[in-house]
Amino acid sequence: MIDAKRRILLKGSLAAGTVGVAVGAGLLSPSLVLASWNEAAFHAKDLPTALTSLMGSDAAETSEAIKIKAPDIAENGAVVPVTVETDMAGVKSIAIVADQNQTPLIASFDLGESAVPFVSTRIKMAKTSNVVAVVQTGDKLYSNAKEVKVTIGGCGG
Amino acid sequence: MSDIKIRAKLKDGETEVKCLMSHPMETGLRKDSKTGELVPAHFIQEVVCKSKDQVVMTANWSGGISKNPYLAFKFKGGEVGDPIEITWTDNMGETQNAADKIT
The complex's ipTM? Predict the structure, then answer.
């Protein structure tokens, strides 16, 4: 009887050990620090899911007022410079998406009151696809897209 | 010594802030070329940009941002000499902070 309990205890601690190792190795990414980091959106495998969890809807209206500056052809998908700019008023946030990446949502920028709707960064792209910029103003979503041809993919390798 | 480089320039009433951070930005999907094992995810999740203790912009990132990230943004109402402060936090809980002044 005592022996049986011992077995159970051992099993239990073993299982706990495995979980601990998995966390340590970053397999189960522990959502440790940031409350504002939207895990569901960033782990979403497609654009509508990501947008819905990030901005509450995926109904974005195409707008030419959003200007995306990115190369037509990117030789190296690991470093694709992207600039998003718009002259719309009341922009609350800007999101950048590469729609063929494994997790399409790359970044979202929450703008404070004094911020001008302009962001520029460098992103990774797995293969040729659209770079989509989604702009949130008040309660509406606008988006625009630009195709970037990628010669060498920037994810995995 | 901080690894964040900041340039903040005032031009026509708008301050343009450019910064470079040094970070591996691992997605967690890449395999090590020697061992064939997945390299654990290690990327900046949040960047908070402040001027005079007011948050100008918060960026939330995935591993889809390139290694050694570059970030530029603009805001209104800055003046020469105002402090700019950038803080990032990554998925391992590491954090780094740097400050500079608008020129």
Answer: 0.89
